[in-house]
Amino acid sequence: MRSTALLVMLLPVLSAAAQEPLETKLVVKQGGKEIGREEFTLRSTRARGLPGSTIIAAARYPSTTPATRLAASLERTPDSTLAKFQLDVESAGAVTVILAAGSGARLIVRTLAKGSESGRELPGGPDVVLLDDAVFSLYHPVAELATPAGRTLTAIFPRSGKRATFTARRESGTPGGAGRIALSGEIAGLLITDAHGRLERVELPAKGTVVTRAE
Fold first, then answer.
1. pTM (2 decimals)?
2. What is the DSSP letter of 147?
3. Contact 190, 181 (CB under 8 A)
4. Which residues of the chain have pLDDT under 70?
5. Helix, strand, coil percentages for the chain (3-state, nearest 5)
6. Does residue 139 contact residue 57 with C-beta atoms inside 8 Å?
């Protein structure tokens, strides 16, 4: 009963956010074939006007008559530490809500579904990023954290529980502007950002995934 009540309270929050006009549209292809679409907005503040940044995203797979819909909200503090994260996943008529929040050097993750609730505690900090295999705007913080010498990051995939260590090296450009970022390690690929620092392209060769800005 408790998890069901929490789902009822949480869902309208992110559903409303996902209905806002989202500025950037992405096309997701795998093996050269379009499999989904994503839209996202970047904000230079957090909820209630707090300092930091926010990503709000909505994705659907496939892009027409989607079988799976995802809505995500990620808030980070000015030093890039996770403040708050929520991911709603609707598939086969069921909804799962994943929540994460930073607490010092810890990351607390909770998963809510109808009739069930679970939680776990993981190492956190400014070198930890939250990613998802179907929400690619979450790679935006990776582009911001990348350095010319290469910065080692730990990715946590809250939906699957997977962890990955990788290096983000800025090959050209500066944070907040056009740039090219190479990823190596347990996540290998390429990120390209535009003049405003927004993701323009994501390449993950191991999965045959290429994400590009929609025309």
1. 0.88
2. B
3. yes
4. 1-22, 104
5. 15, 60, 25
6. no
Q: How far is CA 207 from the centre of its chain?
A: 17
Query: Kind and range of the H or E element at 144?
Result: helix 140-145
Instruction: Report how far residue 170's alpha carbon sits from residue 110's, in angstroms, rounded to the nearest whole number.
Output: 33
The tokens for 108 are 């607390």
Interatomic CA distance for residues 77 and 132, integer angstroms: 20
pLDDT digits (tens, 9 = 90+) for 125-145: 889 999 999 999 999 999 999
Sequence spans of domains, the chain: 2-213
Tokens of 202: 């994501």
Distance CA 167, CA 165 (A): 7
How are beta strands 128-130 and 151-157 bridged, if at all? parallel
Tokens of 163: 């962890």
Compute CA distances 56 → 43, 102, 103, 112, 195, whole Å. 8, 18, 21, 20, 20
> What DSSP element (H or E) covers 15?
helix 2-18
Its sign, for the CA torsion 36, 41, 42, 47, is negative
Which residues, 6+ apart, have CB-to-CB distance to 96 below 8 Å?
88, 89, 111, 112, 113, 159
Location of structure tokens 């260590």: 165
